[in-house]
Fold this protein.
Amino acid sequence: MTDYKALTEKNWPEFLAVLQQMMQIPSVKGEPTAGAPFGKEPRRALDLALALGKIWGFETGVVNDAVGYVQWTGRDAAQNRAIEAGNQKDTPAADYIGIVGHLDVVPAGDGWSFPPFELTEKDEVLYGRGILDNKGPLMSCFYGMKVLKDSGFTPDKTLRILFGTDEESGMSDMPMYLEQEQPPVFGFTPDCKYPVVYGERGVVGVAITTEFAATELAALSTIVGEQNRASVPDQLAVTLSKSGTIIQVVGRRSPSNAPELGENAITLLAGKLAECSELSSRLRDYFSWLYESFHEKHYGEGIDLALADADSGKLILTPVSLQKINEGQLELAISFRYPVTVTEREVLAGIKQALPANSRLTVTRSMPGVVKDKGRTEISKLTAVYEAATGADGTPVTTTGGTYARKMPNIIAFGPSFPGQKGIAHNKDEYMAVADLKKNMEIYMAAITALTTAD
């Protein structure tokens, strides 16, 4: 029986050196250029992965300049190739197992204690943008594949690791891959949590645009502070035009799919503005509605939309942006993650019932939920791998997050976060414990072995 822990320990220093090379590339989405539809830095990260694949003796390829792959051809495919060469006729392409991850990262942001685009180790913890989401886990799969090859293992089934470059900005890369390539027969993305994730909640983003008189909104300056759909905003400020008073709030950042771990600066700001006598009564009423509907009310209870089911739990909502637009409009953006048995139509109908006066609703993002068959043989294999490696219960679960499993057929999420680990990925000082990353490499090597070995 292969000792995956010993293999990990033996190769750990070299793995860290390889991971450092990848971490040093600031692969945030940029302006499209020739050969780089998502910017030069994500493409640079992809080129590094392909170069390593060639050095380590694997086949490589790039699809639509969006997704690269490194392939370890199994015995079954090799036999088909031999038959094809001998018979001089076409043979159906071999099926493959897929591991689907991404090399792009969200912007670093401010307030780091460590250089964001370096791999820093302190007190048995690794820091850097992408160490968890998703360079650390993806590279542990990739390097684990190399270690298995060097140790003498030969897969029966072909394994292909796919390196995406646009996961953080909408996952438009995977449809581009599927334009030219068939999906894997099964596989996983190491970009969520353990144990096996068989279902992902639906996600719908909405913008609520509310009309005011231009003179009313002239009482407020532009709202200043970082706001995006990935995170609970933590610092916002606005100036009152008449008095020059600056109203500033400080909350706590967390991923938008875990708002309970943060403190939302949007609702904090609304609470203060609702009591501001310099604003019109209509504006104060609006901010009162915003505060009372959403402040620390993460599960829809503030707008009578507390939906839930047994598979995935409660609906989760997160205000992610509040902006003045044009001269007479405020726009509030909210991200909803709804249970797998609920439809987007039901969610939108509930939101419409809660809108303030003179408002309209626009859908800005739509990702229906997905549920995979948790009885699949391959899922049972991954469950057994996880339980053997951790001693923990491996019953498959669902998630509030969104992964490539929504875009790529036959893919489920598997790792890298262990139960109880939340709110790390998009924050400053993104981290992963050394012990956890080592355990991931052990699990992923065992998973590769299990999935590519013939039944």
